[in-house]
Structures are given as C-alpha cells and as structure tokens.
Amino acid sequence: MATIYYDHDADPSLISGRKVAIIGYGSQGHAHALNLRDSGVDVRVGLRDGSASRPKAEAEGLRALPPAEAAAEADVVMLLAPDTSQQAIYEESVAGSLEPGDVLMFAHGFNIRYGLISPPQNVDVVMVAPKGPGHLVRRTYEGGGGVPGLLAVERDASGTAKALGLSYAWGIGATRAGVLETTFKEETETDLFGEQVVLCGGLTSLIKAGFETLVDAGYQPESAYFECLHEVKLIVDLIYEHGISGMRYSISTTAEYGDMTRGPRVVGSAAREEMKRILAEIQSGEFAREWVQENRDGLPNYHRLQQEGAQHQIEKVGAQLRSMMPFLASGGPRPQDVSGG
After folding, report:
1. Residues 310, 311, 314, 320: what is their CA dihedral angle, to the nearest 10 degrees?
2. Which is catalytic among the residues 108, 135, 303, 312?
3. How far apart are CA 173 and CA 140, in angstroms?
C-alpha cells in the first residue's frame, strides 16, 4: 500500500526556519511562492532581468532577485522553471552557491531522473509535486483546502530530507489533501506516460479521430464537435468525482452498454502494444533525449506540430461554437495568464 501523509505528519517549524528561493514564477512558481509566504515562510523569487514575471511577483509583495542572488541567499532552492531550462539555470545560477545542509528541490523529476542535473553529494535532493496546475494549487489553498501532492527523496545527506519535504508540502497546502510518497524515477516515468498516453496525447488524438470519422461520414462538423469534444468534460467530471463505475451509473444504459462493448475495440491490443512501446521509450531515456535535442535545435518539430494542431477543423468549429457560450469565459484563468519564468 502507498504511504500517504497529512498535516499531522508534518512539522511546520522545519520549513519556517529556512530561507526558500523559488526559481521561476510560472504556473507552479507563483503558487508555491505565494502559498509559502502566506504560511509564514521566508520566500524570495529568482527571476532573470527583464522577466515579464518580475512585476507580477513584486505586485504580490514578493522579493524578486536574479536567480543567482536568490539561490545564494537561500538554503532551500526549488527549481520551478521549465524542464528544458533547468539544467542551464542550475549550472549558471544555483550550483555555485549550494553548501552542505542545503536542499535542492523539484516539482518534477525529469532533470534528476535523466541525469541532466547532478547535485553535490552533501546536498539533500527532494521533490514535492502538487498533482494539479498552479492556479488550482493557489486557489484551493486560499479557500482553506489543498491539492494532493507527491513526495520523493533522491538524496538524504542531512538525515532530515523527508521531514523537510513534508514541511514544505505543508507550506503549500498539499498535506491538507494528502501527500503520496514515491520516487523520482516513478514520478517522472508515470507522469510522462500519463501525459503522452492518456491525459493529453491519447485524449486529444481520440477526440480528433472521432471528430474526423463523423465529418468524413457526412455529419455536420458542429454535431461532431459537441459529441466528441464538448461532452468530454461532462464524462470526465463524473469519473473524477465518482470513478468509472460511478460515471456508468449516471449515464443511460444504452451509453453504458456501448461503453463496455465498444470501448475495448477502440483501445484494444494494438493500442496497448503502442502504450508499452511509449513506456519503454520513457524508461530508456529515448523520449528525454529526443525532447532535449528538439529544444537545442530550436523546436522545429514542436512548432510545426503546434501550428498543424491549431489549424485543424475542430479548432475552427470549436472557436465558433464557444463564442456562443459566454458562460465558458468564467471558467478560471487561461494558461497564459499564469505563465512566465
């Protein structure tokens, strides 16, 4: 059974007695910095000169410093810049200031799992990873709740790394909801797999394939959009709140029978074999090497695929239909509203 920790397992005094540097002020960065600040922790934010996020952080009353200065001041450094930027930031601004007893923290294990960052042996290496986007981490905290999180210790040089990680998790509100103990390896590999196979890659490909199948068969694109994209939220919300069985209880028996008899034909043995191949690419580091090289090359494939996706018919139809649904505009901040670094 997994080990899960809550507020009563954490010692708030541990993180309250440290100086924390949050490197980056994007989705996760702003949430960590503000939640820690409101929990009484001494926080500063590391941002490069000219960063568009600096005015946002300062408007919230946070101290914004160049990353090297923030890291030099702190004895706990949380790297929350994008995965592909962390290695350079670490080497240029963090590595030189780490001292025995310091803690280097992450919210995703990518750079440690694939050896892009190699901290000194006398520094604790810990991960505290909320399982939700930053705006939700912040909003839930402000409402008195929390978003569940993961805790992993890659190196315990001090003998207190786990306790400090739990205290940090308390500071951002994660122990209010529960913190699952894991490893950097497990978090990284399952996170990448979930994103690629189910949550993002699998889901968006399934939606577009269903839309294209209906349109190619002569059905109205608007009808295809509603059936294959718009209603996804209704089903996902039911699964999120009640599980798969609970969702099936809430839909019609016709829909439930079609789910149970036709779903396995869509995601059948061929899909499962491809899932295994994708998992193998993640485990071997093949995906990581590909993604790092893509960034070094200037992201040509990334931008091409992004543009192709934006030009798909489902986006044009969706934009028109969503413009007639003003209630959607009140659904919370858009990703670009909390981005930055």
Report:
1. 90
2. 108
3. 8
User: For the segment 88-122, what is each residue's pLDDT rounded down to a tens digit?
Assistant: 999 999 999 999 999 999 999 999 999 999 999 99
Report the alpha-carbon angle 169-160-94, nearest 5: 75
Please count the other Cβ atoms lying within 10 Å of the Cβ belonging to residue 179.
29
**Among candidate residues 129, 132, 137, 119, the one with its CA nearest the CA of residue 181:** 129
Residue keyed to tokens 């960052």: 117
> Is 108 known to be catalytic?
yes
CA torsion 169-171-175-180 (nearest 10°) is 0
Which residues are CB-neighbours of 140 under 8 A, at least 6 positions away?
A: 132, 146, 147, 173, 177
C-alpha angle 301-336-85 in degrees, rounded to nearest 5: 55
Q: How far is CA 265 from the centre of its chain?
A: 31
